[in-house]
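Now for a concrete sample entry.
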Amino acid sequence: MNLQQVKQRFGIIGNSAILNHALKTAIQIAPTDLTVLIQGASGVGKESFSKIIHQLSARKHAKFIAINCGALPESTLYSELFGHTKNAFTGATTERKGYFETVSGGTIFLDEIGEMPMRLQQYLLRVLEQGEFVKMGSNKVEKTDVRIIAATNVNLVENVQKGKFREDLYYRLNTEPIKVPPLKERPEDISILFRKFAADFAERYRTTPVRLDERAQLLLENYSWPGNIRELKNLAQQVSA
C-alpha cells in the first residue's frame, strides 16, 4: 500500500514533507514486529498512526486495544494490563483477564507512556524482553505475544534524567521512533484541513461550507496551534456554526 492509499484509507489529510516522512516510516515498519514509540504533542493524531501500523501488519485480524496510561490509578492500570486473581484486592470477587492475555496475538497501544508508574514500567519491560507477565495476586508466570506501540507527548529522555522513567525501558521502546509533527510545523496543510472540517460540518447540518479568504488563511497559518488538529477542528466547527 502506497502513501496516497494509506492517507485515503485512514483519513490522513496533508501533504507536508514532515508528515509524509512520518507516514512512510509507519508504513515501512508496520510489517515487522518491532516495538514503536510515537512522539508528538497532544492532538497531532498519534493514535491514528498506531492504527495504521496495526492494520498494515500481520496482526491486522487480531485485536487492537488502546489504553491511556495517564488516565488510570496504578492498581487499576495493573489490573487492566496484567489482570488479577480472585481476592487479589478488596472487591476482587472474580478473576479478571488483562489485555496482555486477551489481546495476545494482537497489538496494544499504550498512550501517554510517560505517565506510567515506575513499578509498572518494570513489569512492562519484562513483557517486552521475555514475553512474560504475572497477574496481580498470583505467582504464576504467563506468556503473551503482543506488539507494543507506545506514544508520548513528553520528552522521555528528560524524564529518564529526572528518574521518572526507566532508561532500559526507554531504549527498549525506542526501537523505531516516529515523530508526528505539530500543526505549526506544517502550515501548508492548515487550509486543507480547515476545508475538510468545514465540509464535514456543512454536510452534517446541510449548510454551505465556510471558506477562508486570504487574510483568514494567513491568520491561521501564523497561529501556533497549541491544541494542534483537535483545536483546528474545533475552530472550524465554531466558525461554521
